[in-house]
Amino acid sequence: MKQRVASRRIKILVAKLGLDGHDRGALVLCRAFRDAGMEVIYSGLFATPERIARIAEDEDVDAIAMSLLNGAHNTIFPRVVKAIKKKGIKDVLVVGGGVIPDVDKKGLLKAGIDGVFGPGTPLPTVIDHITKGVSKLRKI
Q1: Domain ranges of the chain
Q2: pTM above 0.85, yes or no
Q3: Helix 24-35 vs helix 123-139: angle between axes, to the nearest 10 degrees?
Q4: Among 13, 74, 84, which residue's Cα sits nearest to residue 53?
Q5: Which of 8, 15, 109, 131 has a 20 to 30 Å separation from 71 between CA atoms?
Q6: How far apart are CA 1 and CA 27, in angstroms?
């Protein structure tokens, strides 16, 4: 992976995974990230973990923000982490959101998801988490 430049804008991939066609929240995130000064790439609907890893590698993203509302987060989110690790990508922040029960959050964090956000999370909270997380990764 290329050497990152600390001063460049954060490049984030908003990923709409699996058999979930509800993208309004993902599109709201895209706009919020753009308005916060980030460069945004949107995966489109029905992305696979392998496709997300390929986009992350091809576009040299700093972060991946996954959105899933169909209840498959315990399966698909960890598969994205595995797919990016398989490609040797180590410097990408991975967060996820959607209708995720509190009982599932600990397992997702253990699986390598850096932040888990549910409905009603204020957009500045998500943006701040990503900005701080990417900043830490760039210092490594």
Answers
A1: 11-139
A2: yes
A3: 60
A4: 84
A5: 131
A6: 28
